[in-house]
Amino acid sequence: MAERNEAAMATTETGRTIRIAAVGDLHVQEDAQASCRDLFREISREADVLVLTGDLTNLGKPREAEILAEDLRACTIPVVAVLGNHDYESGAVEDVANIVRQAGVHLLDGQSTEIKEVGFVGVKGFVGGFGSRMLGSFGEPAIKAMVAESVSESMRLENAMRQVHTERTLVVLHYAPVVETVAGEPLEIFPFLGSSRLAETIDRFKVSAVVHGHAHRGVYEGRTPGGAPVYNVAMHVAKPTGRPYALLEI
Ligand SMILES: [Fe+2]
Ligand SMILES: [Fe+2]
Predict the structure, then answer these.
(1) pTM, two decimal places
(2) Mapping DSSP to helix (H, G, I), strand (E, B) and coil, where does residue 168 land?
């Protein structure tokens, strides 16, 4: 059953609503027993667009990306994706990205794309923590570099948002923009699960919904301080569909 989103539905005076299937953290492995083909076939029947919210591969190996690309042949709808931290692990992120792009995926890394009158804006995001407890730019250069990376991802999101002129917009992230959807993870790792800087940027724009992954033990639904609906669609998170993917009507 589709998740109906009031904020999104309110923006659909022009154009037909589209059904978006969103799932994160596939963590495709070389020696995995299960393939994603059946899942992609099912999603192609249920939705108009598939969104993958990062950690496409388990260790960022090109071979893992090739397996995903082969499985994506079973997907007959457009695919939008961002990368996750795992896709960087083997130092071959350019190869992974190229393989995924060659499979026809709209891989967003600070860009936007428009499909069926909906704008998709994607950036990986980064760590840093939430609210008034966010890591600040103080002290050692390594800490300042970490905060600078977090700020940079938010600015890249902002630049991509400025390029979108659609009535309806979905923001696609890997890291969480709000603390609500990471609840259930150990408290000690909250600062490594996302950053409120992303939500601050999102709230400067009109956004239909936000999807992210990364917090495997988080919860499905949250909201930015400005009211934009946020969904943690990591495949391990329980969703209204009862399936590994969420369905959003936008
Ligand atoms: Fe993950
Ligand atoms: Fe991750």
Answers:
(1) 0.94
(2) strand
